[in-house]
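Standup, Tuesday
Yesterday: got the pipeline producing structure tokens again.
Today: sanity-check two examples.
Blockers: none.

Example 1:
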Amino acid sequence: MTTPSPATPRPLRVGIAGCGAISHNHLTAFRSLDGVEVVGVCDIDPHRAEATAREWGIRHAAGTVDALLALDLDIVSVCTPHPTHEEVVLQAAAAGVHVLCEKPIAVELASAERMVQACDEAGVKLGVLFQRRFWPAAQRIRAAIDDGTLGRPILGQCSVMLHRDPEYYSRDAWRGTWANDGGGVLMTQAIHYIDLLQWFMGDVAEVYGRINTYKHGEHIEVEDSATAVITFTSGAMATLEASTAVSPSLGVQVRITGETGASASLTEFPEGSDGRVDLWAVSGKVSTEPAHPGDAEPNVPLATINGQLIPHHTTQVRDFVRALGDGGEPTITGRDATKALRILLAVYESSRTGSPVRFTPLSESAQPLAQVGG
């Protein structure tokens, strides 16, 4: 008598909503995993959906999210313009489909909260792409905070000094508009590093910030530059500067000083390259490497930036698939992603009103270095 072999599990069925530039990263990541099948793509431009399906050998090209969800999906990957994320996520949740969404989770806090609530109520997972958390350099700094090498962070600095040509904004009508992009450098570029900063530093209590447009005003209505002072519920403080008016680009630096007095920083230069620990000042010794190697090309095309991030997209996609398999949570949930959005929206609000935006009272258990004035 022949013993029947165990049934082969059905592959997880994935659909990609939106066939713009970043969808290439999602397609590559999902296609690299065992037990996963990309069964469909959709786009409001049916020709682009069909072209993507042909290029990748995908069976179905849809013109609507409803048609995509009708393909009996397990996961939908959201690569649509920022303000449309909520609509896609709510449709997916109603259909019982898990969601992996590009950053930012939304462009309004209430929208993000509705997305999280809808997925909770539907019992589906919601993950949001912040792939730079998976850099080994970022993981090393997080570990040094957790194991006491740095200890509780007390000071932080986040510098996002990037280059964008005017053509970056002018080639797509939605770029650089409040209605269709949701913001400028903070919403589209700096949000990745705001996420890293708050992941290292903890929950935020207050934000005081300013935005301006210095270089790209002929092409955008949103900010190309911003600064902020951020106070955390622990009493820690950090500064933020961000711009796409820099030429040549200086890349990104995130530096943390902990209560032990030790400091560490990472640099992403050129943009899109892996973050590197360029400063490790621990136990009385300082180890450094050049933040800006002289032989590096500082201004990098967007396609190159996105392409270099594919390995980390893949790591996060694998983590999301793992969460579906073991019933746990993805490393970066919708609630996690809402934190970075809340911070940058507070910079916009503070710049508009001229006043700091207070999230919650400073924790009574915190031990700030100085009393925060009223």
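Example 2:
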Amino acid sequence: MTQQEKGKLYLVPAPLDFGCEAQAPLQNALPLGTLQTAAGITHWICENAKSARAYLKRIDAVAPLAAPLQAQNIQELPREVHKKGDHTGHFDARPLLTAALEGHDVGLLSEAGMPAVADPGSSVVRAAHELGLVVVPLTGPVSLLLALAASGLNGQNFAFVGYLPQDAGERQARIRELEALALKSGQTQLFIETPYRNAALLQALVQTLQHNTRLAVARGLTLASAHVRSETVKSWRAAKPQATTDERLPAVFAIGR
């Protein structure tokens, strides 16, 4: 089979309002071209089939789907991929792309934002390249880049480090390690947390970081309630930071010079 006869793997971004009470209109966060391309796909790989169908229903209201929801072929990534991640190369995703080898375009979805960026999906992208499939990333919101751009921190040298440890002692040590790296190299350090632990993480950051270190928190990006605050830790301490986070909204944290 030639490459032209194979389907493509489309990386389809999702809105950043997953789990939020309020949802932003899709056309406010994603280009019409992305929504139209997604509407033409009938085979999907996702984290959760239920939320994938909910997203497809929202797309259908803007760009009619090529097949009814009941006829969409939706496969879920294994649960262990969600828990441990799939960026290490230990999961073989090639069987999930059988439809693409048969000529069907396949869409890869995460719960929010761009799949394979701060979310599962890397294994599927690697498998697509191994199988000789064309990989097409579609345009849409990526919370990490939106937060970085709005932070005023170094956008020329930055790193995303995932989640910080939940144990208080380990988390404090990791915060100090990342701060030392940021202050020495100038590299902005970005990380995330489960929304209901946002307040605890912010409190730990404000208590642990040096007073001249700059801390940025971007929450609810692309929503009407979006808020970005970027100040020195000294200013955060003066403003009772625990009152500035909404535990229902996803947030991106960043530290730097």
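Quick observation on example 2: Residues 168-185 form the longest helix (18 residues). Residues 28 and 222 are 8 Å apart (CA to CA).
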